[in-house]
Write a structure and sequence with these properties.
The protein is an alpha+beta fold. Strand 3 and strand 4 (89-94) form a beta hairpin. 37% of the residues lie in helices and 35% in strands. It has helices at 5-20, 23-26, 102-129, and strands spanning 31-32, 38-55, 67-86, 89-94. The mean pLDDT is 78. It has a 4-stranded antiparallel β-sheet, covered by helices on one side.
C-alpha cells in the first residue's frame, strides 16, 4: 500500500498526543502538607481524534502535491478525586458535583450509613456484654 500524506498527518498528531498524555496526567504528583498529610490528585482524561484527506487528481496519475487533508484532536483533563494519606490511614475524597437525584444521594451516602450501622451494632454488643 502506498504511503499517503494523510498517514504523515496522523502519525504526527498521534505522536503529539502521546507526548502530552502519560500516567502523571491521571495520577498527579503527591503534595505533602506541613502536618504530614499527603494529597495525590486523580484526574479523568477524555480525548477525541479525527482526520481526513483527499487526493485531487485523476486515478491514472498520482501527484502527491495535489492533496488536501486535516487532523484534529481535543483533550479534556478533569480533576475527579484526591487520595489522602496520613500515617496508615488512606481515604479517597471525590470531587464531584452534588447529587441531583434522590437515588444519587442515597448511593453517595451508603458508605457513611454502613459505618454508622456498624458502629451502632458494635456499641449495642458492648452494652449487652456489660
Amino acid at each position: 500500500m502506498d504511503k499517503r500524506p494523510i498517514n504523515d498527518l496522523m502519525e504526527t498528531t498521534m505522536q503529539k498526543i502521546r507526548e502530552m498524555i502519560d500516567a502523571n496526567t491521571i495520577i498527579g504528583d503527591p503534595i505533602t502538607t506541613a502536618d504530614g498529610i499527603t494529597l495525590i490528585p486523580v484526574s479523568k482524561l477524555s480525548f477525541g481524534f479525527a482526520g481526513g484527506g483527499s487526493d485531487f487528481t485523476k486515478k491514472q496519475e498520482h501527484n502527491p502535491a495535489m492533496f488536501g487533508g486535516g487532523i484534529g484532536a481535543g483533550v479534556k483533563i478533569e480533576p475527579v478525586a484526591f487520595i489522602i494519606a496520613k500515617g496508615e490511614s488512606i481515604k479517597m475524597l471525590h470531587i464531584a458535583p452534588p447529587a441531583t437525584t434522590t437515588l444519587d444521594r442515597v448511593i453517595e451516602n451508603v458508605p457513611e450509613i454502613m459505618d454508622k450501622i456498624t458502629e451502632f451494632i458494635s456499641k449495642d454488643k458492648e452494652d449487652t456484654n456489660d
